[in-house]
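Email to the structure team, subject: Ig-like domain-containing protein model.

Hi all, the expression group asked for a predicted structure before they design truncation constructs. Nothing fancy, just the tokens so they can compare against earlier work. One-line instruction: predict Ig-like domain-containing protein, return tokens.
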Amino acid sequence: MFIWYFEKTEGNKVEKLYSVVAGEHSSTRDGSRLDTIQLKNGNAALFLPQIQLNEEGKYICVVIVASVKAEGATILDLVVEPTVQLSPKEPEIEKGSVKTLTCTVNKFYPDSIIILWQKHSKHTSDKSVLAEDIFMGTTVRNSDGTYNTTSKLRLQPSSQDQGNVYNCIVKHKSFDSYPVYNVTLTVTGTRYEKLNSSIG
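Reply from the structure team: attached below.
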């Protein structure tokens, strides 16, 4: 006899998922199956096609042979890699005015995420992680169980910021290495400076 049970991550409700009793297979989950040939070799691996986020949790396998019972368990953790967009793609700001860069992160799971902003100065070649003028949006849950969020960086550049590169770095469990998204800042003169330049 082989029985698979499922316990959701949230809550402690345990439900029978799949069983093989006297050679008869029974399933409560569409598409789930055990390989009959592998089962004869002692492999009771459970196949779950098109896994969904609500199936994350603990899976318990119980084997009973001649009144001897053995049990094992495994934890299924799911991740969904987010899509990331940094806008505007070509920011142009008048010197002394204010502009906002927005890093939009959509469709990620689980909800734990870190978004960092980094400035790469063209004039000094220094890279620094920014800590001021950053506004983190609320993390919103989608109907499919994934999450969306945004982070915004407020800029008020001087002429020295011309050509600086701003990076949005997203740290999430789904990434093997953290991707970096960047834009290059163009700082223009004020209207007064432009007017004087055209007159001169």
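The radius of gyration is 27 Å. Residues 1 and 23 are 8 Å apart (CA to CA). Ping us if the truncation boundaries need rechecking.
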